[in-house]
Amino acid sequence: MEVINALGRRKAAIARVFVSEGKGQITINKKDLSVYFPSSILQFVVKQPLNKLGVVEKYDIKVNLDGGGFKGQAEALRLAIARALVKINPEDKPALKSEGFMTRDPREVERKKPGRPKARKRFQFSKR
Predict the structure, then answer these.
(1) Domains delineated in the chain
(2) What is the spatial distance between Cα 77 and Cα 65, in angstroms, rounded to a whole number?
(3) Residue 2: pLDDT band with limits 50, 70, 90
(4) Please, are residues 14 and 69 in contact by the beta-carbon 8 Å criterion?
């Protein structure tokens, strides 16, 4: 099998994934998954599509992760892995779609407006 690549985004994070047959190694920016994401919850989020299809030990995954915070990066990586798995086997798409792994979360940070401290927050109103 040749290398399959896919892209996942969430907030400001971008994950580029390269999937090849192997023993289940996940390497993120040349670090192991458990080193890059010490939190077991984020490791679980990343592995969700693999666990759903039962192919955790079947593929080696190399990842370039950029931008955003750790939560956004983990969710971007989950989307990228799910997209790569669908490229490998299109019959898996309904199973991943039903769990919501194929959907790009479109929510982004709203820009700050002039005359306000944040996007929607206003300065305290003083009557006198």
Answers:
(1) 4-99 (3.30.230.10)
(2) 8
(3) confident
(4) no
